Amino acid sequence: MKILIINAGSSSLKYQLIDTADESVKAKGLCERIGIDGSMLTHKAVGKDDYVIESPMPTHKEAIKLVLDALVDADHGVVASVDEIAAVGHRVLHGGLKFTESTLVDTKVKEVIKECFPLGPLHNPANLMGIEACEAAMPGKPNVAVFDTTFGMAMEPYAYLYGIDPKYYEKYSIRRYGFHGTSHMFVSGETIKFGNLPEGNQRVIVCHLGNGASISASKGGKCVDTSMGLTPLEGLIMGTRSGDMDPAVVQTIANGEGISVDEVLTILNKKSGVLAMSGVSSDFRDLGNAAAEGNERAQLALKAFRYRVIKYIGAYTAAMNGVDAITFTGGIGENDFTVRRDVCASLEYLGIKIDPEKNSIRGKKIEISTPDSKVKVFVIPTNEELAIARETVRVAGLA
Ligand code: ADP
User: Fold this and answer.
1) If you compute the radius of gyration of the chain from its CA atoms, what whole number of angstroms results?
2) To bridge 382 with a disulfide, which of 30, 67, 183, 185 should be the other Cys (CB 3.0-4.6 Å)?
3) Which atom of ligand 1 is found nearest the CA of 282?
4) Which of 148, 225, 324, 336 is catalytic?
């Protein structure tokens, strides 16, 4: 069965067509510059030449139409007709308080996605446009919304509530939600399977380290805690986000610089993290090179990033009264062996030992701990699209 996965952004739309028979990707691509001059679709299909087409895409509707045309194209397509697509799975950023599960889209679900615009102002409107474009192009086809926040909805109130008056939760739904939920769900599940962890409440810590970065603690695949909060700003130091901070910093910068709270928040989201600390780049390859050449700010930024990861692993081990496995994923987690090496070197107190040779392997599913390590350590590439495809099949009742 073929499932189309859509990840719609405000001016872009990524897609994959996944065959659930062997969970392989038949085609994938990207629409860029939607609503802007110079719109472009890049389509890659298995066994076919890459296909790039420049065509106006004033809205997501035209983008979806071009995607479907590419999928059925005689030369570049992979299906004979759109009817072969069994269902569409959509990545949706924020499900607010209403969604504790992925869900089949209907009018009510669309209303709730809209109600969550204030919680996900950049993503939710685009996600809804993607859904509506698919509904228009493929009437009657099941659409499933898979929320980035669902995984975190399993947290207990003592973990998700901030230390503030509950009236703010009631009035504005302020709580910790967590993001990268689909990745944490997928990777914690894969850790349990791949690691052959004994049945029970397997205690797993997943370090999703990419440009956006977050850590989760889960028992038996259910989230106990996760480092992002009301928004993705909380938690680790990231490529361009500050991560955890005393909120008084916002006041001090706003007053000192004569700028608004909104402007400070933009700085904390887009112009902070290792980018600002190093003054070099948000990209860990650039940072690694600069640090190796003796750039002290780059060295400090990398150290601060690793230190925060180490602190969170310690906190989550305490939260679960131990840990059975730690898994690294995301662009940095999968590829940067120096981060894994340095983080694990600080986890000696947990009896963790890693094999330097296995740790040097890139982007592959592998156990990197030694047989006598007290906690298993893995690298497992994340695959959010596959996780969405699996959820789509389950929720649409196609299994
Ligand atoms: P996001 O999905 O949040 O945009 P990714 O998960 O793609 O981010 O991760 C991007 C990060 O991964 C970048 O900082 C990049 O430098 C880092 N990365 C990718 N490949 C490597 C590598 N070979 N070595 C070190 N870092 C890498």
Assistant:
1) 21
2) 183
3) 14
4) 148
Q: What is the pLDDT of residues 95-120, one digit of tens each?
A: 999 999 999 999 999 999 999 998 88
Nearest C-alpha neighbor of 92 from the set 399, 388, 390: 388
Q: How far is CA 89 from CA 164, 188, 292, 325, in A?
A: 36, 21, 43, 30
Residue type, 121: P
Amino acid at 359: N
Pocket of ligand 1 (CB under 6 A): 210-212, 239, 283-285, 330-332, 335-336
Instruction: Judge contact between 325 and 202, C-beta under 8 A.
Output: yes
Active site residue 83: no
Model confidence at 235, in pLDDT bands (50, 70, 90)? very high
CB 13 within 8 A of CB 41: no
* pLDDT higher than threshold 90 for residue 20: yes
Total residues belonging to the chain = 399
Instruction: Tell me the DSSP string of 117-131.
Output: TTTSTTTHHHHHHHH
Other Cβ atoms closer than 10 A to 196: 8
Q: What is the residue with the minimal CA distance to atom 25 of ligand 1?
A: 336
334 CA from centroid of ligand 1 (Å):
8
CB 275 within 8 A of CB 239: yes
Q: How far, in Å, CA of 203 to CA of 322, rounded?
A: 7
CA distance 234 to 230: 8
Coil vs helix vs strand at 4: strand
Phi-psi region of 294 (alpha: psi -120 to 50; beta: other; left: phi over 0): left
Burial of 375 (0-12, 13-18, 19+ CB in 10 A): buried
Please give the Cα distance from 5 to 71 (Å, whole number): 13
